[in-house]
Amino acid sequence: MALLALGLDPCSLLGLVFFQLLLLLLSPATTMDSGKGPMPRVKYYAGDGRRALSFFHQKGLRDFDTLLLSSDGNTLYVGAREAILALNIQDPGVPRLKNMISWPASDRKKSECALKKKNNETQCFNFIRVLVSFNDTHLYACGTFAFSPACTFIGLQDSHLLPILEDKVTEGKGQSPFDPAHKHTAVLVDGMLYSGTMNNFLGSEPILMRTLGSQPVLKTDTFLRWLHPDASFVAAIPSTQVVYFFFEETASEFDFFERLHTSRVARVCKNDVGGEKLLQKKWTTFLKAQLLCAQEGQLPFNVIRHAVLLPAEAPSVPRIYAVFTSQWQVGGTRSSAVCTFSLTDIERVFKGKYKELNKETSRWTTYRGHETDPRPGSCSVGPSSDKALTFMKDHFLMDEQVVGAPLLVKSGVEYTQLAVETAQGLDGRSHLVMYLGTSTGSLHKAVLSGHSTAYLVEEIQLFPDPEPVHNLQLAPTQGAIFVGFSGGVWKVPRANCSVYESCVDCVLARDPHCAWDPESRICRLLSNPNLSSWKQDMERGNPEWACAHGPMGRSHRPQSRPQLIKEVLVVPNSILELPCPHMSALASYRWSHGKAAIPETSSAIYNGSLLLLPRDGVGGLYQCVATENGFSYPVVSYWVDSQDQPLAMDPELAGVPRERVEVPLTRVGGAAMAAPRSYWPHFLVVTVLLALVLSGALIILLASPLGALRARGKVQGCGTLPPGEKAPLSREQRQQPPKEHRTSASDMDTDNNHLGTEVA
Ligand SMILES: *[C@@H]1O[C@H](CO)[C@@H](O)[C@H](O)[C@H]1NC(C)=O
Ligand SMILES: *[C@@H]1O[C@H](CO)[C@@H](O)[C@H](O)[C@H]1NC(C)=O
Ligand SMILES: *[C@@H]1O[C@H](CO)[C@@H](O)[C@H](O)[C@H]1NC(C)=O
Ligand SMILES: *[C@@H]1O[C@H](CO)[C@@H](O)[C@H](O)[C@H]1NC(C)=O
Ligand SMILES: *[C@@H]1O[C@H](CO)[C@@H](O)[C@H](O)[C@H]1NC(C)=O
């Protein structure tokens, strides 16, 4: 046989074949292709102890859809199905219920809802959709009220909710949607509620509306088709003079063979009072423009999902951050992008040219005609002329697009929500931190520090079962973000710096909230950014610079000294499994064996672990080395030794602390199995396959007298079996004819000599 001719002894051959087969069969659910774009450096599954989250839930309550933070940041108001709760979030740990009031839809509305063929088990309830702070003593809330929207004021006493009086409940059309599945948005500005939602039972009439307060109630005019009937609102953001609405609708200005979605920003002036003769009780300042979030040369991300404003400290301009997905799936996966828009750009587009619909060709073209002064649609004081209002009826779409800058583009994920804040790093600079909720219930923490694209510090799977993240509420004073979902409210601390166990890991993580404290040797939450001895390198994430005393070239020490050496004793006839935790998805991992190469014929790497078949000369130092950001460091170091002939320790490693550890074993010969491993069933399959392969090989060998001679000679000299152990290969070979290889597991039970059985 070729392999034998290559000079490999049969045990190496066995080892090799065994490992290769083991690997083939075990080939684990390799890290699923999580698409293009930045990878989260660390990933936590639901319930991972390294990222312990607090969870609030209340028996009998569902759909924790709306979150509102009190102005002092100590109370979280939650709108659930038919109830509103006040949670005390002041203390660390699980949020505590302060009190709760119920607000069910009336029985009459519920039966009407069921009569209209809506589901009385899932839809005919009061789902809270609007929850805002009205003044110091009152909240204002709206709900779907069994497909009959209703609103009410809720009194507060020491941030406890006072019961809702039935006669204080008013109609809420235009403020809350009818259908809990419909999108909506609302914001309270100067005592007035600006809302964007569906205004009818069928969900075919979108509306932008202003209610409450002293100013007249204003609406969009349905007849003028300022909004496409499928408009879906995701955010409302007030600015100095105007209120911006972010939404998505079918674009009618493009000729396209399929329904084309487009993202929009619309704006209305706060001082709008409606027209006198024309556009009575209607907006006279409604304008909308297209939002473009695209990477050059690629299909645009045309569906906006959520938008937030990050107020800026002067001199920089406030910016809008928004998540987008695409209507098209490329390669069967959805992709998402985060884009940022400056308010200045948005303002500029609204001051630019209008589009108008050419009635003859039914096409939208740039309006090049005369503009009156004051400009139609501007927030000028004083009543607009009839002429300007007539113009406004048809000129509500801006010619130019607002072009955003993509900060993060990622395929294979669908972002549904975001929250942003800035975090001050050790260097005093401020870094943008974005928390991105996905359609499958995970949270990405993305950081933008100086450069133009963001990286993902971590991904936390929040819910055990995938469901979209519907809302995120940052609570900066608590250092946490709250996530409401169907079953309760999660409290997610901004970071758990203690998961980074070394300075290297702490620095490579590039989490602006974490820094290494060399004194206590702990990666800590950065609370007071004036600790000159702490280590962080947000700019480059270079541990060599941050973790050593001052800067030094990367080439001097390619690899740092291990912090701890784990001592492992060889057990005869067993495969040693040396685990290596793959903490960072951005690192590449490899195994090293002192200065020598890993003995290839008696080792294999499975799921990051090094599997070692003990043979002579296999002992020594084994290190799992991670390389990340151009820096290599040992993740774990093992000293493999045998009891009989202890090896002399490398003098270079003197002084490194040592610890005796047990590692998982798989027995491959000899007596009973030591520790049954989780992949024991796979092992059985392997042995069966190996039996097939080797019996085939034996047939070939026996067919050639020379080969048979050579084989017999080699087989008997199987070197790794300790003295006294029977030589299974040769014995079984003689006892059983090649055809009768046994394959059932029961055979193995009676004859524990597995390798022998296989070769038969
Ligand atoms: C943070 O991580 C450490 C180390 O993995 C763990 O022991 C601790 O419980 C974690 N704490 C939280 C709040 O997740
Ligand atoms: C829904 O209606 C069915 C009959 O139409 C009734 O049996 C059921 O109890 C109702 N469910 C609820 C939650 O009211
Ligand atoms: C807050 O608003 C409510 C509802 O309009 C009103 O009754 C109450 O007097 C207001 N409280 C204050 C302090 O303005
Ligand atoms: C910050 O540290 C410097 C010295 O490193 C010190 O002079 C200064 O007073 C500190 N500032 C604060 C606010 O603690
Ligand atoms: C891969 O290794 C990790 C630990 O390093 C372990 O948690 C995981 O269960 C292993 N996967 C399989 C399929 O063995």
UniProtKB/TrEMBL annotation:
It comes from the Eukaryota. GO terms for cellular component: plasma membrane. The chain crosses the membrane at residues 679-703. This is Semaphorin-4A. Residues 719-760 are annotated as: Disordered. Residues 728-744 have a biased composition (Basic and acidic residues). One of its GO terms (molecular function) is semaphorin receptor binding. Residues 1-31 form the signal peptide. Disulfide bonds join C113-C124, C142-C151, C269-C379, C293-C339. Keywords: Adaptive immunity, Angiogenesis, Cell membrane, Developmental protein, Differentiation, Disulfide bond, Glycoprotein, Immunity, Immunoglobulin domain, Membrane, Neurogenesis, Signal, Transmembrane, Transmembrane helix. SMART domains: PSI, Sema. Cell surface receptor for PLXNB1, PLXNB2, PLXNB3 and PLXND1 that plays an important role in cell-cell signaling. Regulates glutamatergic and GABAergic synapse development. Promotes the development of inhibitory synapses in a PLXNB1-dependent manner and promotes the development of excitatory synapses in a PLXNB2-dependent manner. Plays a role in priming antigen-specific T-cells, promotes differentiation of Th1 T-helper cells, and thereby contributes to adaptive immunity. Promotes phosphorylation of TIMD2. Inhibits angiogenesis. Promotes axon growth cone collapse. Residues 36-494 form the Sema domain. The lineage of its organism: Eukaryota, Metazoa, Chordata, Craniata, Vertebrata. Belongs to the semaphorin family. Its main location: membrane. InterPro entries: Ig-like_fold (IPR013783), Plexin_repeat (IPR002165), PSI (IPR016201), Semap_dom (IPR001627), Semap_dom_sf (IPR036352), Semaphorin (IPR027231), WD40/YVTN_repeat-like_dom_sf (IPR015943). It is found in: Cell membrane. GO terms for biological process: angiogenesis; axon guidance; negative regulation of angiogenesis; neural crest cell migration; positive regulation of cell migration; positive regulation of excitatory synapse assembly; positive regulation of inhibitory synapse assembly; regulation of cell shape. It is a single-pass type I membrane protein.
